[in-house]
Amino acid sequence: MTLEEYQKQSTDGLYRAIARLKAARDAVFLVHNYQALEVQKIADHIGDSLALAQAAARTAARLIVFCGVHFMAESAKVLNPGKKVIMPDPAAGCPMADMVTAGQLIAAKKAYGDPVVVAYVNTSAAVKAESDVCCTSSNAVRIVSSIPPDRKILFVPDRNLGSYAARMSGRELILWPGHCYVHDRFTVGDAETARDEHPGARLVVHPECPPEVAALADDVASTSGMVQLVRNRPKQDEWIIGTEMGLVEQLSAAYPNKAIHPLSRRAVCNNMKLTTLAKVAWALEHEANEVTVPDEIAARAKRALDRMLELS
Ligand code: SF4
Fold first, then answer.
1. Beta partners for 30?
2. How many Å apart are CA 311 and CA 143, to the nearest integer?
3. What CATH number has the domain bearing residue 104?
4. In a domain, 132, yes or no
5. Please, what are the averages of pLDDT over each run of 10 residues along the chain (312 residues)?
6. Which of 35, 66, 118, 231 has fewest C-beta within 10 Å?
7. Is the beta carbon of 271 within 6 A of some atom in ligand 1?
8. How far apart are CA 156 and CA 175, in angstroms?
9. CB 43 within 8 A of CB 29
10. Measured from the CB, is residue 272 less than 6 Å from ligand 1?
11. Is 238 a member of any domain?
12. Cβ(69) – ligand 1 distance below 6 Å
């Protein structure tokens, strides 16, 4: 079928088609927390970048369908090169990941006198290949803390996550001037308004938020960390969630008896929302939009990812 034909199908029809194709193609669905809720419902594994990287490394399925953004699909390919990895929409990139290129990083390493490079997983495979170790928002503090104290550290590309890791680890980091347009938009005004409107709520924000917003939060956590926080505090029935709307929708669906408020309804990652059920069905039928990584880059990127997984 064509994509246009899938786009005319009902949601139930798409779920049925996807289930049939999934079995026929021996596929596994790795789905990021920021995907639209109807896409989250097809997940075999749902989570943040770390959880999905771990699932990609372990899966026995022949075909990985990555519902997220391009750097995540690249990481899945690097960690499990024997599998075919496809994306429902190849245009789903991450603007933050595009804020550092391998060429810029090579020049910066030279300029800073060969520092240890910690690369947030939100980077291309080519950037990971020039890095010493990767990190995610779940483990950035642990990874930074593991680096010998006499070494200089260059953290790419998210300055907000880097500054959070620096504060929590007590290490001085050279910060790359990158940011996530979704999280960097949260303001002190958003936090103050949300607190005023929901005085009994606990405010949790993602470390990609600006430091002045993180300073006002009760907790700073990755998306998986937020899921755990809500699960582990059963008596806390009101939350303000400072991350992308996909996670707010996931938590609202999982906890219908709790009040889950977004810190801001503007927090939508348009790149994540490019994935639709129709595109999943079409890409799966045709095994389209394969993600590949040149062998030489993949081998070096894998070293940085493996180091992270060992430390996680
Ligand atoms: S939410 Fe931010 S970091 Fe995540 S994919 Fe979108 S732009 Fe990139």
1. 45, 66
2. 7
3. 3.40.50.10800
4. yes
5. 98 98 98 96 93 92 98 94 96 98 98 97 97 95 96 98 97 98 98 97 98 97 95 96 96 97 97 98 98 97 94 82
6. 231
7. yes
8. 7
9. yes
10. yes
11. yes
12. yes
